[in-house]
Amino acid sequence: MIRSLLHPARSAFLSTSSAAQRRLASSLVFLEHKNGKLNDGSLSAVTAAKKLDGDAAGIVVGTKADVDGVLDEVKKIDGLSKIYTAASDKYDHTLAETVAPLLASVVPSKSITHLFAAHTAAGKNVFPRVAGALDVSMIADIVGLESSGDTFTRPIYAGNAILKIKSSPKDTVKVVTVRTTAFDKAGLTGSGASVEEIPEVSTDTTTKFVSEELTVSSRPDLASAPRVVSGGRALKSQENFNKVLDPLADALNAAVGASRAAVDAGYADNSLQVGQTGKVVAPELYVAVGISGAIQHLAGMKESKMIVAINKDADAPIFQVADVGLVADLFDVVPELVKKVEEAKK
């Protein structure tokens, strides 16, 4: 009844205003980087931004050496018309207390309507503070968006349901993090976007970077590897975890992952955890060894293109999502599988 009383002229005005907003959409993508290399997740965020009808730019924040080291690569990203840079020692290590005020100042000064980042540790740390500074809602971990720029989809209940949300018109800026496995990576074939420097923003914070401890590995990065071999609690010990999985990962040139049960039991480092509270991956091949398939683990890997499950329990939930399943003792079949893979490579 209320809708039927809306004056036709008013309806036409709202429709025209909405269309104008779509045409005037201006997106800014926060481009993560480390050690002179662009984070692949940021390329997925660029793809999400390009789905809107409007202009898209990127911003690189860090020390001068870090910004200069990654700038040539960033300028080649397809679809970005401009690159903003903010270089200062205070932006080292991407502390939310210093980076968030910078982004919050850039958004209104450049008439930004949508701010995007990958749903990574940095994105999850910085963007809620940006949203708070701008007094708008945070839209996290999206897997889809409409060209209107105000409607998004995101997974809930460990990925078992998809929620469609419409941002309030009061939120003049949409602050969004993107699930990287849901969007293709933008290409690096651009001819070179223009660059504009952004002045440093003064901040009053007592937070300082102290140190970080990183797990260094010669294997492919778990979050972006095309092949992943993961182990679960059925491996029974850290020694077995390494003894069984490492040869298979080496043979497949794969990254190694683990279920939360394996991490909690001390078989693998926390950085290897795949699942709702770990990393979300979507490789071409995912091999689950001795993983039962709890809902929390499935939330982190069920978008993989090919899932191979090895478990001696034929009723394990992992087989419900697996493309190929092998009901057998992992201690017998994994060494045999390694031999077959090595023979096939000759």
Descriptive tags:
7-stranded parallel β-sheet, alpha/beta, 5-stranded parallel β-sheet, Rossmann fold, 346 residues
Describe the structure.
- This protein has helices at residues 8-23, 40-50, 64-74, 96-109, 121-134, 238-252, 260-264, 295-298, 330-345; strands at 25-30, 33-34, 37-38, 54-62, 82-87, 114-118, 138-142, 144-145, 151-156, 161-166, 174-178, 194-197, 227-231, 255-258, 285-289, 306-310, 324-326.
- The protein has 346 residues and is α/β, with parallel strands linked by helices.
- The protein folds into two domains: 23-197, 3-Layer(aba) Sandwich (Rossmann fold), CATH 3.40.50; 227-345, TPP-binding domain (Rossmann fold).
- A seven-stranded parallel sheet has the order 7-11-6-1-4-5-12, with helices on both faces. Strands 14-13-15-16-17 form a five-stranded parallel sheet. A three-stranded antiparallel sheet has the order 8-9-10, with no helix packed on it.
- Helix 3 (64-74) links the parallel strand 4 and strand 5.
- The protein starts with 7 loop residues before the first helix and ends with a helix.
Poorly predicted residue ranges: 1-23
CATH classification, class level of the largest domain: Alpha Beta
Rg calculated over all Cα atoms: 23 Å
Give the termini distance in whole angstroms: 73 Å
Biggest β-sheet description? 7 strands, parallel
Coarse morphology:
elongated
Number of domains: 2
Strand order of the largest sheet: 7-11-6-1-4-5-12
Task: Outline the secondary-structure elements.
Blueprint: H1 8-23, E1 25-30, E2 33-34, E3 37-38, H2 40-50, E4 54-62, H3 64-74, E5 82-87, H4 96-109, E6 114-118, H5 121-134, E7 138-142, E8 144-145, E9 151-156, E10 161-166, E11 174-178, E12 194-197, E13 227-231, H6 238-252, E14 255-258, H7 260-264, E15 285-289, H8 295-298, E16 306-310, E17 324-326, H9 330-345
Parallel strand pairs: 1-4, 1-6, 4-5, 5-12, 6-11, 7-11, 13-14, 13-15, 15-16, 16-17
Antiparallel strand pairs: 2-3, 8-9, 9-10
